[in-house]
């Protein structure tokens, strides 16, 4: 009889233990929701857009987003009815331009700032005040995207607006899982949902990343060169101008080589691809929105836009009220 009665007691003890652990998990999740922000911008991403891209932004979607450790007040993220951030634009520009397309991930999108404080918005304001009164800078950034997504965004979507110049962000995260076949989209959708909604998992990912775990292996230089070359050829075919690379990650990390060796390898790749480039990665260290969130605050976005505008002038990519195509053909470039 003692053995018979022990089994229900063990079952009740296990059930009580499971209930306690679940309650503790819920309590931790609740606390982390106040400490880490909602990361709502990820819900703007559509992993099955009708035009065949791997990812896109959901037209007319709107969320209140914040992130980071003890994040600031949420900011509004809104996607226009055409499917990108910022004011809607006619496919054929009304003025003489130039029309600039900025392609990239959350850095270009402006993950933690309002639309008026993104790099594209600031760059347009700077150009309108000085170099090109009719300049347009379109924000085609999509959070959590990589090099192949940028190529699709340019070829399938941004090309409809006939840009005179393409600016694309460059960082280490350009080469990760998205190099997998399109069949991996369901996996990416699940991972994105878990990262956004399971806060303890997000914290674990942050800790692992800060300790160097879970990072993608360096991509061989020939693979990196081939993909950037394809993107550069596509941009030149659409606009007639060499695209400009906006480097937002540490150059040795992007090249996958230490120190000066990585910098020299990166320079060779950009030179061979015919892409002028400007390094604004150090701005992220001084002007991030919150601890644990290295997206730029408004002051950082403005500084990056100012440096980018000065660089475009220096390489001859802009002249007052004239299309950028006539002046942006010369490859080269380097750190500002």
With helices defined by DSSP (H or I, 4 residues minimum), what is the helix count?
11
Can you write the helix and strand succession as a string?
HEEEEEHHEHEHHHEHHEHEEH
CATH evolutionary superfamily of the largest domain: SGNH hydrolase
Helix content: 40-55%
Shape: globular
**Adjacency order of strands in the biggest sheet:** 6-5-7-8-9
For the termini, the CA-CA separation is: 83 Å
> In CATH's first tier, which class of the largest domain applies?
Alpha Beta
At CATH's second level, what is the architecture of the largest domain? 3-Layer(aba) Sandwich
pLDDT < 50 stretches: 177-181, 320-336
- Round the Cα radius of gyration to an integer and report it: 23 Å
Quickly give the structural class: alpha/beta
Task: Please state roughly what percent of the residues sit in beta strands, choosing from under 5%, 5-15%, 15-25%, 25-35%, 35-45% or over 45%.
Answer: 5-15%
> What kind of sheet is the major sheet?
5 strands, parallel
Q: How many beta-strand runs?
A: 11
Give the domain tally: 2
């Amino acid at each position: 009889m003692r053995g018979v009665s022990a089994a229900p007691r063990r079952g009740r003890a296990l059930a009580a233990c499971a209930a306690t652990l679940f309650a503790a998990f819920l309590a931790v999740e609740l606390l982390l929701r106040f400490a880490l922000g909602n990361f709502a911008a990820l819900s703007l991403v559509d992993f099955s857009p009708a035009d065949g891209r791997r990812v896109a932004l959901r037209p007319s979607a709107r969320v209140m987003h914040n992130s980071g450790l003890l994040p600031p007040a949420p900011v509004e993220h809104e996607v226009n009815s055409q499917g990108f951030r910022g004011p809607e634009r006619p496919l054929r520009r009304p003025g003489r331009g130039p029309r600039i397309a900025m392609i990239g991930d959350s850095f270009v999108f402006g993950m933690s700032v309002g639309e008026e404080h993104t790099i594209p918005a600031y760059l347009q304001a700077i150009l309108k005040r000085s170099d090109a009164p009719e300049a347009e800078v379109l924000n085609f950034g999509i959070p959590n995207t990589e090099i192949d997504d940028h190529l699709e965004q340019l070829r399938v979507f941004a090309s409809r607006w006939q840009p005179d110049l393409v600016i694309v962000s460059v960082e280490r995260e350009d080469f990760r899982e998205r190099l997998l076949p399109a069949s991996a989209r369901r996996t990416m959708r699940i991972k994105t949902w878990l990262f956004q909604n399971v806060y303890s998992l997000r914290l674990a990912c942050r800790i692992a990343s800060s300790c160097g775990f879970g990072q993608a292996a360096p991509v061989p230089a020939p693979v990196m060169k081939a993909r950037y070359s394809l993107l550069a050829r596509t941009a030149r075919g659409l606009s007639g101008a060499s695209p400009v690379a906006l480097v937002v990650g540490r150059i040795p990390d992007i090249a996958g080589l230490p120190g000066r060796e990585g910098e020299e390898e990166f320079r060779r790749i950009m030179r061979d691809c015919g892409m002028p480039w400007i390094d604004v990665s150090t701005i992220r260290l001084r002007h991030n929105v919150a601890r644990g969130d290295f997206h730029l605050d408004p002051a950082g976005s403005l500084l990056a836009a100012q440096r980018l505008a000065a660089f475009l002038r220096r390489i001859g990519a802009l002249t007052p009220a004239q299309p950028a195509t006539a002046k942006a053909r010369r490859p080269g470039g380097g750190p500002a």
